[in-house]
Amino acid sequence: MSAAETSWVKQYLFSTDHKVIGKQYLLTGLFMALIGGILAVAFRTNLASPGVLSDSAYLRLVTYHGSIMFFWVAMPVLLGGFGNLLIPLMIGARDMAFPTLNMLSYWTFVVSAIVLILSFFVPGGGFSGGWTIYPPLSAMPDAFLGEHLGTILFLLAVALEFASMLMGGVNFIATIITMRTKGLSFFRLPLMIWMQLIASVLFLLSVTPLIAGAFMLMMDIFAGTHFFTVTAEHTGNPILFQHLFWFFGHPEVYVILFPALGIIAEIFPANTRRPFYSYKTLVWTAIIAGVLSFLVWAHHQFVAGINPYSAIWFSVFTVAISVPFSISLVVMGLSLVNGSIRFTAPMVWAVGAYAMFIIGGLTGLPLGAFTADVYFHDTYFVVAHFHYTVFTIAVLSAIAGLYYWFPKWFGRQLNETFGKWHAILTLIFYNGFAFPGFFLGLAGHPRRYASLGFFEYLHEYQWVHVMMTVSTYLLFATQLVFAVYFIYAIFKGKKVEDPNPWKATTLEWLAPSPPPHLNWGNTHPIVEHDPYEYAVNGELKAKGIDFLPQGKLYVLKKSDAEKQEQEG
């Protein structure tokens, strides 16, 4: 270990080691998930028993819940956490390309989270105009929405979070392109690395318009411009902000979707003991879907007054983007066929996430059709669909990854029985909360209302809200138990005896568990064959070998090892 890493502060607090930074992202994201969950329980309570919260308090909780779960949980966990913890190890590198920038990325994220939490408690209250920050609600303060201070801090927090993810994305791209070990060509990359690379590129290309929109919104508030606000003297265009937001917002869904699919794609082969079905097909469909994601943003605006002729084309592209995703899901399903499936805890989670995402994908099709979306828009059908995609991505897939890579990251094992029961209970309570939303949407139940109020024709569905709220309580309690156990297992869990307990073939499992500083000590991996090469012939099986390690290790010369230590 280098002198620069000897003190506790530099080793654990302001470390430039990608593994420490990944764990920091992971734990901070879990803390923000706890806050987001508490907010969900609070406003769900109001839906089951109207009057517990005021209308403004209800909208504020909904706004912060959506923002936290999307920007401060899904992104930092799946990109910042999993990306930092896995990319160097899975490509045979010793660290990220820019370690100091990596550290700055995390602490910028921490500042953004602090600013967001502070914005909730400022005089006048936090922002309550929705996580999409639509003007004129975000540009015109009144007694209902609070003063501008909460809005300004909210926008600042979002901007800082985006800056953090931009720094991380640049680092990921540079690391994957320039620091792959010998023999690791692009089409030998693990699927998780491909998904992180595509997600990082999508984020870099899509976030700029929203940053511009945020600055324009700030000018409307402070400088009296009228980019988005409309008055008797000025004719701004609030729909313009929607275009800027969703040009980022829809690719952003795939920014967190692709790493989640990468997690599932790593777990499936390790637990079926067979090569991944059509590896290149999954890579190319992800690339095609990423390109098409820039052509579908306005399907979120079918009822916003956009030109109906342009709406037709956005509807066509929305249906078109379902094709590569459908192929991806079929390929992943075929990877289970004829496999020697082991239902380990990570596999149970991965299969559950895969099944839930299929429901989310299928229910997205009517929302992409112009005529159907006019009816379903802003109903609970959208709420259910959104949770079957984003909750599946941000929670189910992420927890699958935690169970799978926990032995590698911490050198300890999560209990298998606990993990399976955790998955079963989560799926039961999650469906109890989310699935009834489809039926409420079919009945025309609007979303973002604190109570049924004057919707007399919906009063008969109040019992559904009670059921959904009870399921939310149980779902939150289940994850709270897991969070406590997760922290306990980091320090007191059973130590792993085998650094590769799943007998996986990707490079990270060749490193010690947990990996030392610089990952490989005095060794370095060389890749000799394609990923996911599991033994399928009788000769190897007869010798008790059911997998081929992804590459061999060679011992560095002493001078090389000393040089690596000095560079660290």
List the helices and strands and how they pair.
Elements: H1 8-13, H2 18-48, H3 55-91, H4 99-121, H5 148-178, H6 191-222, H7 238-272, H8 279-292, H9 308-334, H10 345-368, H11 370-376, H12 380-410, E1 412-413, H13 416-434, H14 436-442, H15 462-492, E2 494-495, E3 523-526, H16 538-542, E4 552-555, H17 558-567
Helix pairs in contact: 2-3, 2-4, 2-15, 3-4, 3-5, 3-6, 3-7, 3-12, 4-5, 5-6, 6-7, 6-8, 7-10, 7-12, 8-9, 9-10, 10-12, 10-13, 12-14, 13-15
Descriptive tags:
two-stranded antiparallel sheet; 568 residues; mainly alpha; 17 helices; 4 strands; 65% helix; two-stranded antiparallel ribbon; globular; disordered N terminus; single chain
Describe the protein in words:
By secondary structure, the chain is mostly helical. The model is unreliable at 1-5 (pLDDT under 50). The chain has a two-stranded antiparallel sheet with strand order 1-2. Strands 3-4 form a two-stranded antiparallel sheet. The longest helix is centred in the first third of the chain and has 37 residues, at 55-91. It is globular and about 80 Å long. It has helices at residues 8-13, 18-48, 55-91, 99-121, 148-178, 191-222, 238-272, 279-292, 308-334, 345-368, 370-376, 380-410, 416-434, 436-442, 462-492, 538-542, 558-567; strands spanning 412-413, 494-495, 523-526, 552-555. Helix content is 65%, strand content 2%.
